[in-house]
Amino acid sequence: MILITGAHKAFALYKAIEEGVNHMWTVSAFQQHPSCLFVCDEDATLELRVKTVKYFKALSEVHHRLSLMGVHSKLIEET
C-alpha cells in the first residue's frame, strides 16, 4: 500500500500512475506489482488527468457496491 496525501505529492502520484516505469521515479515500479494499492486524497490527484481520476473513482464505487451485495466474499470462497 502506497499512501500519498497533499498537493505537494501530486506530481509524485502523477509519475507513479500515469507515466511508465522509470528509474528516476522508483515508485513507478509498483505499477508492475500485482497487489499494490495506491491510496490518496483529493489534493494528491491535482496533477492527474481528469479521465484518470474518474476511472479510479468509478472502480472504487463498483467495488463498494459489490461488497455491499456480498459478491466479493462469494468470489473469494469459490476460488
Automatic annotation (TrEMBL):
Catalytic reaction annotation: alpha-D-glucosamine 6-phosphate + H2O = beta-D-fructose 6-phosphate + NH4(+)
InterPro entries xref list: Glucosamine6P_isomerase, NagB/RpiA_transferase-like
Highest taxon above the source species: Eukaryota
Designated gene of the protein: CSON011435
Protein name from the UniProt record: CSON011435 protein
One annotated Gene Ontology cellular component of this protein: cytoplasm
Metabolic or biological pathway: Nucleotide-sugar biosynthesis; UDP-N-acetyl-alpha-D-glucosamine biosynthesis; alpha-D-glucosamine 6-phosphate from D-fructose 6-phosphate: step 1/1
GO molecular function, one term: glucosamine-6-phosphate deaminase activity
UniProt-listed GO biological process terms: glucosamine catabolic process; N-acetylglucosamine catabolic process; N-acetylneuraminate catabolic process
